[in-house]
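Hey, quick one: can you model this chain's 3D structure?
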Amino acid sequence: MSLRATAGSGHVAILTSNFAPEQTSTGRTVTEFAEFIAHSGLRVVVATSMPYYPQWRIWPEYAGRLWRTERNGRLTVLRSWHFVRPRPSTLTRLLQELTLSLMGLANMVRAIRGARVVYVVSPALSFALVGLVVARLFGVRRVLIVKDVMPDAAVELGMLRNGAMIAVARTMARWAYALSDEIHTLGDGMRRRIARDTARPAKIRIVPDTIDAAELAEVARLENEFRRRFVPDGTFAVLHTGNMGKKQDLFLVLRAARRLQHDRSVHFYVVGDGAVKDEFLKVRAEWKLENVSHHPLQDRWMLRHMFSGADATLVSQLPEVVDIVVPSKLVTAMGAGAMVIAACPADSETAKLVGESGGGVVIPPSDDVALADAIERIRSDGVDVAGCRQRARAYALRRFERSAVYGPIARELLDLPPHGARDVVPALPTREPTVGEVSTRG
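Sure thing. Here's the predicted structure for all 442 residues.
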């Protein structure tokens, strides 16, 4: 019997290096997608890693196992061991992807066999390429979801410098694009980048990350847990939350905090974890910055309290980050009606979203003088804070509300014949994990 003849029972397969209970970035958004599709009535099978992000170490409760299966209703998650080290380098990232591809191959086959469509998530480029090849062998329709444009992101951020490795990675990206029946990405700039490396740019669709309007509803100041737990009365709270990685330019926070040390009423709150956390905390200590607090990632329900309670929410990017990514935290912050300060290039996707919405302030990237000035303008009523918050949330609800984005996709998938008709165009999904909701077995 041919591999193609085995395809067809009708579930949806997702291959991703990040998934719940990871709470940030790709792990969060891909889980949102999987849960939405499962709640729509389709069985979903996910092949993924042991949770490791953003700490870059396998979480203790998952350590010591090579494989693990988790089931919750229509959602099945197949996990496999992989190499990972804190403070990731080019070499350790490569080893992580290679071991995940090798150890996860059997789970990929389990997920893909019988699927009507497989969604393959990048930036884990080698893992994605292996998954696309396996899906091609089984004759299953393939949708590539590009969350970061690789290897462009790694090259432009200085994380990948070896010429031979860059050439190999670019070749792998072109192969991944060619093997895909459809490509989903987050913004127009990312779409243009991908189009340069594919012979069929028409197969690229923009499918943004999404929000749940009810989950991000505003919290009144008197009921706000973020302010009650962390913010003293009379304090102007500047928030940065999520992944603490290189492209987030967290040292901008430290430079601005040093500039504002004289003003005891301004305090910076950094909530999260990631590859640069240790260096961030080391510099904070060296500079004796008592106006900067760090806290671990908070439970998901706390998000709306943080965005509502912070006087300003910083979304910061390095100058090189223009059209290689659209930060999911920006979509979430806007959906919660945060007062956004976006420190980013003027021609970036981030600046475009903030400008179109009228829901925030855009300043140049890495500019601590501009950040300090924006904080002062917000404090002195030089910015229409209430209007920014209202416009940001209204824009996010129009553009990114989950049922509006994924509802049509779910209907397309439900209508897709078991063997996957090639003329039907399904789309990318996303939704955030309900951590602890998935029961484990084996």
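One thing worth noting: The first helix runs from residue 25 to 39.
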